[in-house]
Amino acid sequence: MKLQKETTSSQTRHGKWYEDACGTAFAMELVGERWSLLVVRELMLGGRRFSELRKALGGISAKVLTERLESLEAAGAVRRATLPPPANVQVYELTEWGKLAEPAIQELGRWAATSPQHDPTLPLSPVSLMLSFRTMLDKARAAEFDAVVGFDLAGETYLARLKDGQLPITREGIGEAQVVFRAPAAPLLAAVFYGKVAPEELADAGVVLEGDRALATRFVDLFHLPEKVGD
Questions:
Q1: Is 51:66 a contact under the CB 8 Å cutoff?
Q2: In Å, what is the CA distance from 214 to each residue of 78, 130, 178, 218, 223?
Q3: How far apart are alpha carbons 100 and 195 in whole angstroms?
Q4: C-alpha span between 152 and 147 (Å, rounded)
Q5: pLDDT, tens digit, for every residue of 90-110?
Q6: What are the helix (H) ranges across the chain?
Q7: Rounded to two decimals, what is the model's pTM?
């Protein structure tokens, strides 16, 4: 009991739900409330304004988002920052420790995608799609070539630089891209990458492919959802 008193204080969050020393239990105490982990997901590719987070997480209320940001900030996973002039607006961003959650998010997503109950046709945010590319990339085959691919998606632009089997993705301009995929909503590109629907078949819905089409075809073929497991 003496050890417990020396290593536990009223300031710590660990043990508030489960009284369990396991790191998994602590992780659930930190991000297990509804929306918390998705807030972390949406910040994984850079800071976002409060309004941008609400837009990306369509079902969340302002009150709940405020509460989740406050709890994540208190946990040390999120911090506030002010964009430099001329923007001068407050954004929320992940701390260095918060960014370390990406592998956990990826593996949870990969595991859940093997469930027969997973529905890939549900709404999807641009950041969620970008992170899915980092999760589902066939790294062995990707090591065979390099590519710079741009995404103009729902009013946001992202640049993916495929090299040596790695796929860093940043929120930035797409001027240097060899290939650009454009779509008004993320599920449309999910259909291209995971449903293997030709972009031309979704042209009426707003999907546009620009640049090296042969490279685009090779790039799309690097992404596949995992096989389902169970009944």
A1: no
A2: 41, 21, 11, 6, 16
A3: 30
A4: 16
A5: 999 999 999 999 999 999 999
A6: 2-7, 23-31, 36-42, 50-56, 62-75, 96-99, 102-113, 126-136, 139-142, 186-193, 213-220
A7: 0.90
